[in-house]
Structure prediction request, 219 residues.
Amino acid sequence: MKGLLYTVLELEEWNRRATCDFCSGLNKAICEIRTRNRITDKIIASGCACENCKEKLGREELPKCERCGRLQTESRFDFSSGKYICRCIKYGENLEEKELPILPHEKRMDAFYERQISALQEQLNEAEWTIEMEREEVVKFQEKSEEWSKRQKQELLDKIKQQEVEIERLKKLTPQELVNEIESYKEEVAWLKTQLDKSNSQQSAQIEVRKWAWLKIRK
Prediction:
C-alpha cells in the first residue's frame, strides 16, 4: 500500500478535548493526522496528535507499519507480544491486490485540499530546516567572533600591563642607568640587524644556486 499521504489538520470542534493517539500518557492533542491513499484517495487511518508527535511526523520519526505504511497508534500496541499489531495484519489486508486509481469524476474536494495542505507543509518544513541551518551558522560565526574579540582584548590588556610595569621600572632608574639601558637596546638592535643581513645573504645565495642548477638542466 505504501505511497501514502499524511496530512496535519486542525481538530474538529467536537474533538478539542482529545488526547494523543500516537504516544503513551494523556498528552493533549492539538491536531489530527489523516492518512490517505495517494492512488485511491481513500482515508485509511486517522489519529489525534500532540505537539511533540506532530513535530516527530515532520522529522519522519513517528513509527510506521513496515508492511502498509500506516502510522502506529498506541491502541494498536499488543502488550502480550510487545509489538504493534497494525490494522493490515489484524484484518489480513491483501496489499498485493492492485488498487485502481480514482476516476476524475470521483475525485473529492477534501482530498484535493489535503494534497495542497500536505505540499505546503513539506515546503514549510524545508524552509524551517533551511532557516535553522542558517541560524546555526550565524550562531557559530558570532561565537567565533566573540572568542576572537575576547582574545584580542586580553592580549591588549596584557600588553598594557607589561608596559605599565616597564614604565614603573624605568622611573626608578638613575640617569646613568637609563643611558646604559638605551645603549643595551642599541646593541640588541644592531645584533638583530646583523642576523637579518646574514639571513638575507643566505637566501640570496640559495636563490643563485637554484637558478644555476635550473639553467644547467635546461642546457
Summary: The CA atoms of residues 170 and 181 lie 9 Å apart.
